[in-house]
Specification:
single chain; 451 residues; alpha/beta; seven-stranded mixed sheet; 7 strands
């Protein structure tokens, strides 16, 4: 099989110009149609948590590039998940239809939970702060609606936090200082830099200021408070350096850190309400169970369900892929505990590594023996989110819709099985269009029509 496209097409897929990206997608589709490219058949693998350049992608991938990379690697389902914005939505779904792969769109943000004010949960070094998601967005909120205003505020608030943080960090990194508009904003096409952009910008600015490795290592040793040997090592590992910049300068104990409270981030309930108002699925992301707040997944799930969560998401590589046998055993025990808690509550668990740090995989190793007990869960959840997206787009019949509530009447097992089957049945090239499915259709009618 041939999955190689030209370097020019790859560059065009990642252009900041959406017209250039669209033309590249259409050219790849033409090459597939005419037999010049032969992508593989879908395999039993998925990743529904890939960040694009609309928030932060370690490889600078656009939504279109993510969709093509997934198609050429044989993923059955791929999902773009950006921080604080839905700028990937239309492009991701359109590229999926054009290239013939099941696609989903999610939004991720940080939120505040007062019941966890004194416990670290999923945001390292930030007690009370939880990462939360909406999965399976099929449309943008109506212009002028409360949901549109709320989602717009996520970006506004995150940018305000970035600017405030930069003002605190700059004195600690002097003579390397960032200008937000000049050095940071241009790093993303939608004006939505994240903390990782700040770290990358500080890294780049320091290399420019100190081109000599010895001087650069001495600079970071002083700024980060690490010994010379450690500094000499991490300047040659951008991922490690930028992670250290983030932890030492921006998280708790660093000069850029501000103790969060109810006014710093939106409440979890408010995020989940907005997600449902737009027809998407409120989601609880989970890291690895080692924080105080994640150590009891039963408590966390029960709280999340009360807040409105209907699905969960994990990043598998963080839960098993470690050379230290003691740490690996501890992580796997936490993963098993989490998965069992999800199963007891009929909460699907989707999976995917974010690609928002250098060195991360595009798709997790679903063949790893450590993940074998959970691959079916991950794939079912990916198909559920895609099936939900299809029906929500076609007839407002998604997993959290009024139609679903009436059709399945407190039967989450039946609902999960239905949407997973829809996700498997729908041809990604030609999903149902709005109007194709009558509003009074039963689940059996829909499955019959799709089969």
């Amino acid at each position: 099989m041939d999955t190689n496209v030209s370097d020019i097409l790859l560059r065009n897929l990642d252009s900041f110009d959406p017209a250039v990206r669209l033309a590249a997608v259409k050219e790849i589709a033409r090459e597939i149609a005419e037999g010049e490219l032969t992508p593989p058949a879908p395999e039993n693998i998925s990743n529904v948590h890939l960040h694009s350049f609309h928030s932060y992608s370690a490889r600078g991938y656009s939504p279109s590039r993510i969709v093509w990379e997934a198609r050429r690697r044989g993923l059955a389902v791929v999902g773009v998940n950006d921080f604080d914005v839905l700028d990937s939505l239309d492009e991701t779904l359109a590229a999926g239809r054009t290239l013939g792969i099941r696609t989903t769109v999610s939004l991720e943000t940080r939120s505040f939970a007062s019941t966890y004010f004194d416990r670290e949960v999923s945001s390292p070094g930030e007690p009370g702060i939880l990462y939360v998601m909406g999965m399976g967005f099929a449309r943008l909120p109506e212009p002028g609606s409360p949901a549109a205003s709320f989602i717009a505020s996520l970006k506004t608030q995150s940018q305000a936090r970035n600017v405030a943080m930069l003002k605190k960090v700059n004195p600690a990194t002097s003579p390397v200082e960032l200008d937000y508009d000049r050095d940071v904003i241009p790093l993303t096409p939608s004006g939505n830099p994240t903390e990782r952009h700040l770290c990358a910008a500080y890294d780049a600015k320091a290399r420019e200021r100190f081109p000599d490795d010895q001087a650069l290592a001495a600079y970071w040793a002083q700024v980060l408070g690490v010994d010379a040997a450690a500094a000499e090592k991490i300047i040659h590992d951008p991922a490690a350096l930028q992670t250290t910049i983030k932890s030492k300068l921006m998280k708790k104990g660093g000069p850029g850190y501000t103790q969060p409270d109810s006014g710093s981030f939106p409440a979890v309930r408010d995020v989940f309400k907005t997600v449902r108002d737009v027809g998407a699925i409120p989601c609880l992301p989970w890291v690895d169970g080692l924080s105080v707040g994640e150590s009891n997944p039963d408590e966390l799930f029960d709280d999340a369900i009360r807040w409105g969560a209907r699905i969960a998401n994990i990043m598998p590589d963080r839960n098993w892929n470690f050379s230290d046998p003691v740490l690996k055993k501890r992580k796997l025990a936490a993963l098993e505990k989490f998965m069992n808690a999800a199963r007891r509550r009929h909460i699907p668990v989707a999976a995917g590594t974010e690609l928002n740090a250098p060195g991360q995989k595009f798709v997790d190793d679903f063949d790893a023996p450590e993940l074998a007990p959970y691959v079916a869960d991950f794939m079912d959840a990916a198909y559920i989110v895609y099936g939900h997206t299809v029906l929500e787009n076609a007839a407002r019949m998604g997993l959290v819709s009024d139609w679903a509530a009436a059709a399945f009447q407190n039967d989450p097992t039946g609902a999960n099985a239905f949407y997973a089957r829809v996700g498997r049945l729908v041809d990604p090239y030609r999903p149902p269009a709005p109007g194709d499915i009558p509003l009074d259709a039963t689940p059996e009618d829909i499955l019959g029509a799709l089969a």
